[in-house]
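FORM 12-B: Structure-to-Sequence Request
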């Protein structure tokens, strides 16, 4: 990292572009360049560090992010208008970069205050949840949850709330199908999530995703804290709302008996997300979160990287850390599936990034992926999971998902994540239940502008006030506080009631 006085960042000696630490004016003199800037360049965007020939590879983080479409002079603005995405062979080199983890001895590991469930799993929150098997019961479950106002829950101080997880599928879909399996797996993941003390599942009665079939296929069994209703059997909308309220009222005293106790940080499963990424995300927030995840893994915890389209182009960074060729190949197989799934579409996997990413300085998916992959840190890749598949391996793992934040986070939570860490450069407004979201800002101006939404300012790194390892330690310590019950900014704002979005894969008929 250069001096704080320099307006440029040179991320690797082999890079032929600089990143603007602050906005650059047309004709601005740049120390170390033979000439002045040749355009206005926003903060986080790139300029040529030397002459780049037409067709020459452009390198950032010593990784190819495309080729120049015309000759570029030092100081030229480099972005999507003169940078073309070109795919190329990337050696997966399975396991080449695997290094043993220096685990912290069990007796010395960090701890937090969590809810220990009967099966030994640990929650960071203590909600009662209501699930809809089909969109047709969504209104009913929302009305049941709405009954339980803060005033009505005041008698149950150990319960964090009653949350409704409505969804828009469950019927009009192929069954059996991959989509059908994914939906059921997602619902079951929430039904048995350690952050939910009790669960009510509500169906309509004539949908394809029948409640009894859902429960039987997923090994769910009715109990005091797992109930189900079918609206057509109970007597309709109003009757089901009344019955649902009564069922939750019976669960609340039992759920309230749960109390926090000291548990090891090895019980933490952190879902890693990024949204509204910018040119600073891969310099500050993402590598700092990766440093925090390296600490978590050393303490026996689990870091879950997802958003498969957002590792496209840099998958070798993960396959080189795979503990076996089988693990590395499973990741490549998921990328091959995505290539077929998105063929012919203007999807992110095929190079097109969102407006916010473009405005923030990211020209294409390869450049965005470089930053996204850094969230996973540097420890070995131990396993690759399907969307919403239960995660049983500790350490750094990957779960297949789209890059769309609510869908990816929903899958991670269904897989067992009891916290989400979400980096953002543009300022994504996101929260989740029952696992809370911690928001990490990539730059100070955005953090200050959106301070009510952001939990941690990783922009201090580019400001020269903090190093990546130091920020990683701060993030880890804040994770422990939020896991112990300290509310995140998104929780204080009440986010999370509309961010349950299972992945829709199939046709609607």
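FORM 12-B RESPONSE
SEQUENCE OUT:
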């Amino acid at each position: 990292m250069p001096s704080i006085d320099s307006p440029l960042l040179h991320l690797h000696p082999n890079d032929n572009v600089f990143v603007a630490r602050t906005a650059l004016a047309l004709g601005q003199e740049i120390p170390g360049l033979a000439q002045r800037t040749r355009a206005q360049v926003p903060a986080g965007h790139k300029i040529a560090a030397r002459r780049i020939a037409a067709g020459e590879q452009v390198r950032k983080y010593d990784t190819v992010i495309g080729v120049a479409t015309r000759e570029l002079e030092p100081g030229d603005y480099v972005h999507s208008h003169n940078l073309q995405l070109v795919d190329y062979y990337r050696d997966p080199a399975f396991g080449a970069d695997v290094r043993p983890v220096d685990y912290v001895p069990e007796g010395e590991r960090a701890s937090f205050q969590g809810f220990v469930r009967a099966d030994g799993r640990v929650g960071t929150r203590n909600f009662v949840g209501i699930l809809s098997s089909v969109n047709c019961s969504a209104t009913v479950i929302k009305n049941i949850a709405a009954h339980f106002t803060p005033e009505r829950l005041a008698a149950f101080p150990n319960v964090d709330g009653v949350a409704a997880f409505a969804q828009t599928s469950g019927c009009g879909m192929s069954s059996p199908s991959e989509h059908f399996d994914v939906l059921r797996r997602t619902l079951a993941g929430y039904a048995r999530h350690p952050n939910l003390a009790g669960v009510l599942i509500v169906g309509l009665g004539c949908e394809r995703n029948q409640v009894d079939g859902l429960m039987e296929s997923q090994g769910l069994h009715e109990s005091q804290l797992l109930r189900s209703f079918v609206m057509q059997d109970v007597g309709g909308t109003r009757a089901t709302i009344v019955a649902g309220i009564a069922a939750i009222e019976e669960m609340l005293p039992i759920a309230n008996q749960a109390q926090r106790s000291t548990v090891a940080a090895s019980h933490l499963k952190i879902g890693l997300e990024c949204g509204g990424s910018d040119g600073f995300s891969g310099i500050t927030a993402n590598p700092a979160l990766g440093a925090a995840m390296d600490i978590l893994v050393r303490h026996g915890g689990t870091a879950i990287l997802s958003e498969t389209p957002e590792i496209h182009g840099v998958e070798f960074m993960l396959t080189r850390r795979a503990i076996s060729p089988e693990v590395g190949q499973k990741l490549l197989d998921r990328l091959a599936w995505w290539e077929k799934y998105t063929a012919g579409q203007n999807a992110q996997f095929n190079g097109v990034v969102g407006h916010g990413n473009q405005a923030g300085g990211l020209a294409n998916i390869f450049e965005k992926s470089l930053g996204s992959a850094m969230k996973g840190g540097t420890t070995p890749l131990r396993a690759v999971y399907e969307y919403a598949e239960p995660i049983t391996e500790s350490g750094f793992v990957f779960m297949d998902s789209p890059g769309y934040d609510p869908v990816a986070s929903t899958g991670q939570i269904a897989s067992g994540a009891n916290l989400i860490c979400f980096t953002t450069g543009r300022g994504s407004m996101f929260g989740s239940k029952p696992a809370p979201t911690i928001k990490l800002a990539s730059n100070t101006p955005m953090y200050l502008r959106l301070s009510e939404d952001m939990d941690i300012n990783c922009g201090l790194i580019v400001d020269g006030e903090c190093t990546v390892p130091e920020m990683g330690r701060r993030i880890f310590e804040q994770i422990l506080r939020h896991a112990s019950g300290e509310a995140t900014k998104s929780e204080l704002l009440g986010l999370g009631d509309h961010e349950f979005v299972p992945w829709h894969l199939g046709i609607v008929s």
